[in-house]
Amino acid sequence: MPETTPVTSDFLTDLPPLGAQAERLIELGVHESAGLSAAELRAFAEAAADSEGTLLAVHPDRVPASALAPLLRREDKPGFVVTDMPDVDDFAPSGIELPDAPLYLLAGLDRGDHMANWSPDETLPALTKEDRTPLLLTEGIHWVLQQPAALERNHCFMTIGSRLRKANGTLDARTPAIWISNGTGRDGRERRNAPKVGWCWWNNRHTWLGFASTTGRRGQVQEVAGT
Predict the structure, then answer these.
(1) Range of 214's domain?
(2) In angstroms, rounded to a whole number, what is the distance separating the alpha carbons of residues 58 and 123?
(3) Does any domain span residue 50?
(4) Has residue 164 been placed in a domain?
(5) Which residue, among 147, 134, 145, has the nearest Cα to 209 in the 3D structure?
(6) What is the pLDDT of residue 51?
(7) Cα 160 to Cα 150: distance, rounded to the nearest angstrom
(8) pTM, full prediction
């Protein structure tokens, strides 16, 4: 396993206040896609006021990755899903239990820069040993929606909490990732520098991809705020 030094930027832990995150999702229309009213989203954020520094996420069953990815923006260019990943929404939580609620919170986000040039197969047990769990693809997109600086050239990330289970019960060898397009190949020149949802092989290493993760379990308001 490669030896590396943590280089994740400290400022990435400074997420916007939950109220501002709620307004961002409302501005993008995410609440409508999730079947929620703006008032419900604002009420959730207000009830979680004691949990600042966390990320507000919508359950992937309510709003899938294919609906969230186009909402990403970088240099005024919208995000997109690579053409050879039409099954992006079939990548589901693997070994991760989500709250039975449309909205939940994630604490202690880390981009995993220090694990760049590790394979997903090498990374997962290391995260488990550190009592961390990898982000889902939808959670990674939510992070970049709220904090665009989390997606940085040469410091992008995989979201290996989402896996695709095939009909025979085995896991697909692909794992989702979020990075920045170079505008080559099927991406198209017009998409250069746009946020990109794609995939990498489970056993491959990439020097420019870390592994986004969170501490503990995902929490609902009553669990995180202690109400």
Answers:
(1) 10-225
(2) 25
(3) yes
(4) yes
(5) 134
(6) 87
(7) 17
(8) 0.92
78-101: per-residue pLDDT in tens? 999 999 999 999 999 999 999 999
Structure confidence at residue 13 (pLDDT): 61
Q: Classify residue 5: in a domain, yes or no.
A: no
- Angle at which helices 18-28 and 38-47 pack, to 10 degrees? 160
Could you write out the three-class secondary structure of the chain? CCCCCCCCCHHHHCCCCHHHHHHHHHHHCHHHHCCCCHHHHHHHHHHCHHHCCCEEEECCCCCCHHHHHHHCEECCEECEECCCCCCHHHCEECCCCCCCCCEEEEEEEECCHHHCCCCHHHHHHHHHHCCEEECCHHHHHHHHHHCHHHCECCEEEECCCEECECCCCCECCEEEEEEECCCCHHHCHHHCCCEEEEEEECCCCCCCEEECEEEEEEECHHHHHCC
Does residue 218 have a pLDDT over 80?
A: no
**Is the model's pLDDT at 172 over the cut of 80?**
yes
Mean pLDDT, the chain, as a whole number?
A: 91
Answer whether residue 92 is part of any domain. Answer: yes
Number of domains composing the chain: 1
Please calculate the CA angle 134-225-222 and round it to the nearest 5 degrees.
85
212: which 2 tokens? 């986004």
